[in-house]
Fold these 2 entries.
Entry 1:
Amino acid sequence: MTEVPSFARTRRLRRSPALRRQVAETRLHPASFVLPLFVTGGTDVQKPIASMPGNFQVSVDRLLPLVAQAAEAGVGGVMLFGIPDHKDEVGSSAADPDGPVPSAIRAIKDQRDDIVVWADVCMCEYTSHGHCGVVVDGVVDNDATLPLLAETAVAYAHAGADIIAPSDMMDGRVDAIRSALDSTGHSELALCSYSAKYSSSFYGPFRDAVDSTPAFGDRRSHQMDPANALEALTEVTIDLAEGADMVMVKPAGPYLDVIRDVKDMVTVPVAAYQVSGEFSMIEAAAANGWIDGDRVMMESLLGIARAGADITLTYFATRAARLLQ
Ligand code: PBG
């Protein structure tokens, strides 16, 4: 008889696709994906976003088929961003009940109830200077911005949004929005705060998409410093105390440690946003033939889920959901 060495053999459970599938610790499911969409005014508009292949600025009529495709692939939700016809110093079009986002919410809700409609709340798409709030003496004024955010959230609530998601990073915004929702008959409406939102260069393609690159300065006075992880837990703690029903970490891929830290601390659902730059880097490398786009897409999403994200916002949502079907 040949002597068999007695070391541990972890390869035993990796021998076949069926075995690997059986013992997988993390499983991706389309219901946990949210597809971000960019909605604009007019009709029959479908304008490609150059830096985000396969993504478009669409009018409401052209948005509906994209929502239908996502829903039919099993995607759990869509996140709406607006590109208004008109921008001014204080972003007054953000709260316009006939603006692109409220119109899109109503149109989706008229047609279907099998997909969750998230509405991003921030002033940066609506201000002429591209900042996330009212600018006073060259800086974004926190307290002057809060009523504008609250008013915008209420407009989205009236239109029928399922989840309000403030991404502005003003202090006290969850409390301001929660109070405004409660006092306008929307105490049942859920709020997901972009709690740990970093001041990230990975947002570059998004800012092209909505034309929100700040005309001067940057967002470092309100978005988080990429050097900090404990501070993310402070942000999450504050937002939960102010009434957030879910919290988000953003970006996702470069901040997997933060996703894990947050997941270990909270009992509410944790969302993570695989942002435009993460998407576009994968797309660009795949277009060059340097990586296998579908495989890297799935691996990036698996990594985010394994880190602890319950929900992933991703421009890959429909494509990844179809691959999983
Ligand atoms: C702000 C907002 C941004 C993103 C989502 N919400 C941009 C920013 O903070 O500058 C970025 C999303 C992405 O890059 O995909 N409304």
Note: Residues 120, 122, 124, 167, 203, 206-207, 219, 275-276 surround PBG (CB under 6 Å).
Entry 2:
Amino acid sequence: MRFGVLTGGGDCPGLNAVIRAVVRKGVKEYGYEFIGFRDGWKGPLEGLTMPLDIATTRGILPRGGTILGSSRTNPFKIDGGVEKIKENLKKMGVDALIAIGGEDTLGVATKLDSLGVKVIGVPKTIDNDLNNTDYTFGFDTAVNIAVEAIDRLHTTAESHHRALIVEVMGRHAGWIALHSGLAGGASCILIPEVPFHVDKVCDYVKSRFTQSYAPIIVVAEGAIPADGDIVTKDGSVDAFGHAKLSGIGEWLAKEIEKRTGNEARTSVLGHIQRGGTPTAFDRVLATRFGLHAITAAHEGDWGKMVALSGTAITRVPLASATEKLKTVDPSLYREAEIFFG
Ligand code: F6P
């Protein structure tokens, strides 16, 4: 059997660990052949490939990014896109696909599965917002990077008596903000799931200054003021209709300065959160996902996504992974609120 492997959407630490595990077990245990599709769904759409075997996947375990490249190409937005993919798979003798991605990439995989393409999904996103899996790889790395940044910002905030705002990723879900804010001892955490009141944030800022500590506010890029709108970068959208975010931190800094008279500055962590080597946790999770994905394919369990449930790797229907987002439960947010101010 011959498999095509692709990685789509935003890059994420651990993608290479999945590719390596899929190939290693697929070749050693099942005698399968592999072909790498380049740049997400663009690969099978345009026939862009690279060789994928044990030799080409050696040494990639600790490497960030993806050796296959990625894109946000949506074949369902391209005339005749799906037919083209089916045609290319046939031409290249590819029997089935292993698609590694988040809500958009796996959304495409779900539709292709219903159109008869054999596919297994592997959940990836630093945002940790995919349904039906306890964690996605990449999240732990992103949180650790954000915590290191927060730790460093604490000392400069204290030295300069400033309020420092750290803007982290998280379009619809505040997992990175919540975990990094809790681990980093933030004075306030703002997440997309809970609209915030600027006056309340200013109260936290003022109270933190009275305790002779400088406040650190962690804000997810998708956090929304109760009486305002989500802040976008330039109004442009990608092939899946998502607006580019970022800017809420800057906006909040201006409001805090205006309302409290204290200097407020913002650091936007941006793509730093997705870059570089994965943590050990993410390497192990990604490796286990890869091993189980190729086994699911070997057993012909098409249309499934591998998932983490507690400590076990399970299989769930691909469709269930993307039918809704896994957002932060308000009770978890309330736990963190004890430390605000
Ligand atoms: O999908 C993960 C994510 O990290 C989101 O939180 C963020 O909005 C998006 O990627 C930004 O990605 P890019 O800048 O590559 O479009």
Note: The radius of gyration is 21 Å.
